[in-house]
Amino acid sequence: MDLVKVELLFKLAGIGILIVVFAAVLNQAEKKELAHLLTIAGVVVVLIFLVKLIGDLFNTVRSIFNF
User: What is the total count of domains within the chain?
Assistant: First the structure.
C-alpha cells in the first residue's frame, strides 16, 4: 500500500475522531443542533476526500486501459 494512501487514511480517521469528540461535547452542553451540523460538516469533508480518491482511481483505470 502506498504511503500517501496510509497517510490519507490516518487523516480521515483523525477527522472522524475529532468530530465524534466535539459532537459528544456539544451534546453534553445541550447544543444538539450544533452537534448535528458538525457531524454533517464532517461527513461532507470526508466525502470530498473520497471523491478525490475515486477520481484518481478512474484516472488510473483509464490510463491502464488507454481510454
Answer: 1
Alpha carbons 64 and 59: distance in angstroms, whole number: 9
Residue with cell 488510473: 60
pLDDT, tens only, 30-52 = 999 999 999 999 999 999 988 98
Residue 27's alpha-carbon distances to 3, 16, 21, 66, in angstroms, are 36, 16, 10, 51
* Main-chain phi, psi angles of 26, to 5 degrees: -65, -35
Domain hosting residue 14, numbered range: 3-65
- pTM for the complete prediction? 0.75
